[in-house]
Write a structure and sequence with these properties.
The complex is a heterotrimer of chains A (309), B (228) and C (262). In chain B, 83% of the residues lie in helices and 0% in strands. By secondary structure, chain B is mainly α. Chain A: One of its GO terms (biological process) is phosphate ion transmembrane transport.
Chain lengths: 309, 228, 262
């Protein structure tokens, strides 16, 4: 083969670089399109709802009159439901993930379980709603409560938590595990001192991303029958109510509403004034999701800083 | 000896070069010894100058081979048979250089003897006979090195006893001459020195053979007494 | 296998007897018989994939961590003559007696102190004074105390590679193992750090029996008292290091250590 002349080399490079720049331009265009759509959506909601975004909006219950309507019961309900969801999904998902990664032997049973977990993540959320309606609402008798909703959403995000736990555990080098076992540690000691702490950033990220998904879910919550007009808050523990002193966990059995349902509710009203409320509430929901994602990023950064190998 | 080649061709070339140089040096030393004995036996004192001058070539070989060995050790860290070869060579070279020195001494002694002009007393042929045996030992030792032939090397070691015995006989004979005729003493002493050098050549040839056995088998048979 | 006879045989610390090992269907070790002498350094050499690491990792049952691995034969451990490979012997018990240092330094992403104290914590030691003492002793034993004594609460992964490896040695030493396994401990280190580890191995053999796998033949020659050459899962030759490196008995050993094609 004859060596290329300098001229030829340059033309080859020039051709290659042209393709480089074309791809770069296409990539930037796609990115801008995606970002613009999101910005437009958020901006549009903000513009339409800005009139309603005041402190009153957060402290008022929903009302027949659009101007005095607020999202108090909705955001409190959302936060409480999320709390229950996290409380249920984290231990279940993390334990299941650890078991599958650290304890389970690789055989056809675990193989099937793994495939099913992946499939669970793809099950439409309304199906979870139907399932919960049967189990939590009727069979267990939890009714249309915060507990039912929280558990429903917990089931919904369980696959996400399990998968992210497993991914986080897999990212830990085998030599760390071997290093621990080599000094005579048991599997549990290895999990307790190493696997769980080192997987924590990944697990937390997964949990928060799961919660961010759950926070916007409407269908399963509607299915369990939470689409009601709620103009009160769940009982604060140990506070005095009409029926005597509330217990520590009474609030979990309380009826509730959540942000997406409140929004759905408003958009289905004929009065266009409620559209403004819906836009404002939509913006608040969006802000909640984004701040959860921000929290996830910050936590991951904080926790990972001290973990390296 | 290990006949397979190294992964590093360069290493093979280095070792081959080293062995070739040792054999070249051995050839030169052997030629020097032959020439010296010939000068003594034939009275051709003109050759002495060449022999003395050629000794610098022997010394040159010693320097070159030493340098090459150091390079091989530094760059290749030889092990096992390679290590034994390289270590053995450094010792063989020392012995060869000494043989060169002995050849030079024989040549100079021959010149003194013939300048005194009295070679009638001890028959030159007796000395020559022992010297031929010593040189044959050297030749065979070098041969055994070239092929790493342990059997040949063992023969060399065995032959040394014979050379030693004959050396003693020659010296006794020379002492008799000196006692009979004190005028021969100067010459006779020179001849004793020549015999002594011949005997030393045999000793060094034996050493070379011992190094060959070490290289080939990793057995150190020096100073091992009769059982070797 | 050829064994060189020597008159004074030191006491045994362990001995592999007819050891076979299988990764599922693949036989990685074939009928290995080899002594490990007490308070001596034994080096395992051989080309990649010859089974030397596999052999090493049998001594602390590391293979039990992964499914499908199977041992046959015995590794006898002295003075109590326990068979380390027996199904009745808990691998955790084995690992409490046999320490290990890995190819790549693998300190935990915790403090220097916690790394060394870990083995003790695993054994249930909670007394702070005992922990302090043993950690210091182990760090001194691993010749790293002077470098880290003022920063025991720093994170271990911030140490240099050579320091990390010595920390890992301290971690293994803290629990007073009877046998210490080194799996190519210097392959990730520079020559200076390597030298420090080799020096350390030499000092450690006063206290503990050492089995070391190395790719570096000169290292085996420098640090070990006995050397075993392995090839394709077999023990080809075992003998005193001096003998192996000056006059090996087997042509295959000779070819390997002199760098010849065979």
């Amino acid at each position: 083969m004859k060596a290329l002349t300098t001229e030829q080399i340059r033309s080859v490079i020039a051709r290659g670089k042209l393709k480089d720049s074309i791809f770069q331009a296409v990539g930037i265009f796609c990115l801008v399109v995606g970002l613009l759509v999101i910005l437009l959506l958020v901006g549009d909601m903000l513009l339409r709802g800005i009139d309603r975004l005041s402190l009153d909006f957060f402290t008022n219950f929903a009302s027949r009159r659009a101007a005095q309507s607020g999202i108090l019961s909705a955001w409190v309900g959302t936060i409480l439901v999320m709390f229950v969801t996290a409380l249920a999904a984290v231990p279940l998902g993390v334990a299941a993930g650890i078991y599958l990664e650290e304890y389970a032997r690789r055989n056809w049973v675990t193989e099937i379980i793994e495939i099913n977990i992946t499939n669970l993540a793809a099950v439409p959320s309304i199906v979870y709603g139907l399932l919960s309606l049967g189990i939590f609402v009727y069979a267990f008798g939890f009714g249309q409560s915060i507990l039912s909703a929280g558990l429903t959403l917990a089931l919904l995000i369980l696959p996400i938590v399990i998968v992210s736990t497993r991914e986080a555990i897999r990212a830990i080098p085998a030599m760390i595990r071997e290093g621990s076992m080599a000094v005579g540690a048991t599997r549990w000691q290895t999990c307790r001192y190493h696997i769980i702490p080192y997987a924590m950033p990944g697990i937390l990220t997964g949990v928060i991303i799961g919660l961010a998904r759950a926070i916007g879910e409407t269908a399963p919550i509607i299915t369990i029958g939470a689409l009601t007009f709620i103009a009160f808050l769940p009982p604060v523990p140990f506070s005095t109510t009409g029926e005597g002193t509330a217990g520590l966990f009474d609030w979990v059995m309380s009826p509730f509403t959540v942000m997406p349902i409140q929004i759905f509710n408003w958009t289905s009203r004929p009065d266009p004034a409620f559209e403004v409320n819906a836009a404002a509430a939509g913006f608040v929901l969006m802000a909640m999701v984004l701040s959860m994602n921000a929290l996830a990023i910050w936590l991951r950064y904080r926790l990972r800083k001290n973990i390296k190998w | 000896m290990n006949e397979s080649v190294h992964l590093s061709k360069q290493f093979d070339e280095d070792l081959t070069g080293l062995r070739t140089h040792v054999l070249e040096m051995g050839g030169l030393v052997e030629a020097q010894a032959r020439a010296a004995i010939h000068a003594y036996a034939s009275g051709d004192t003109a050759a002495v100058k060449d022999i003395v001058e050629n000794d610098y070539r022997v010394n040159g070989f010693e320097k070159i081979i030493d340098e090459e060995t150091i390079h091989v050790v530094a760059k290749r860290q030889p092990t096992a048979s390679d290590l034994r070869l390289v270590m053995g060579i450094t010792k063989i070279v020392t012995d060869l250089e000494r043989i060169g020195d002995e050849a030079k001494k024989i040549a100079k002694g021959a010149r003194r003897v013939h300048e005194h002009g009295q070679l009638t007393l001890p028959r030159a042929t007796d000395v020559r006979h022992v010297a031929d045996e010593a040189i044959a030992m050297l030749h065979q030792a070098l041969d055994s090195f070239a092929r790493l032939d342990v059997v040949k090397a063992a023969e060399v070691i065995h032959a040394d006893t014979k050379v030693d015995t004959e050396f003693k006989a020659l010296v006794r004979q020379l002492i008799t001459y000196m006692m009979e005729d004190p005028r021969t003493i100067t010459t006779a002493i020179d001849i004793v020195w020549i015999c002594r050098s011949v005997e030393r050549i045999g000793d060094h040839a034996k050493n070379v053979a011992e190094h060959v056995i070490y290289i080939a088998e990793g057995r150190d048979i020096r100073h091992a007494g009769k059982e070797a | 296998m050829q064994q060189i006879e020597n008159k004074e045989v030191p006491p045994l610390k362990a001995e592999a007897r007819s050891l076979n090992f299988f990764y599922s269907e693949v036989q990685a070790l074939k009928n290995i018989n080899m002594p490990i002498y007490d308070k001596k350094v034994t080096a395992l050499i051989g080309p990649s994939g010859c089974g030397k690491s596999t052999f090493l990792r049998s001594f602390n049952r590391m293979h039990d961590l992964y499914p499908g691995n199977r041992y046959e034969g015995e590794i006898r451990f002295f003075p109590d003559n326990t068979n380390l490979l027996s199904p009745e012997v808990d691998p955790i018990e084995v690992r409490m007696r046999v320490g290990m240092v890995f190819q790549k330094p693998n300190p935990f992403p915790k403090t220097i102190f916690e790394n060394v104290a870990y083995g003790l914590r695993v054994r249930g030691e909670k007394n702070r004074r005992v922990l302090d003492d043993k950690v210091e002793h182990a760090l001194k034993g691993a010749a790293i105390w002077n470098e880290v004594k003022d920063r025991l609460q720093d994170l271990a992964p911030n140490l240099s590679g050579g320091q990390q490896q010595r920390l890992c040695i301290a971690r293994a030493l803290a629990t007073d193992p009877e046998l210490l396994l080194f799996d190519e401990p210097t392959s990730a280190l520079d020559p200076i750090a390597t030298g420090a580890i080799e020096e350390l191995v030499h000092e450690l053999k006063q206290r503990v029996t050492i089995l070391i796998v190395t790719h570096n033949m000169q290292q085996a020659a420098r640090v070990s008292d006995y050397t075993a050459y392995m090839y394709l899962g077999e023990m080809i030759e075992f003998g005193k290091t001096d003998d192996i490196f000056i006059k090996p008995q087997d042509k295959r050993t000779e070819d390997y250590i002199t760098g010849r094609l065979s």
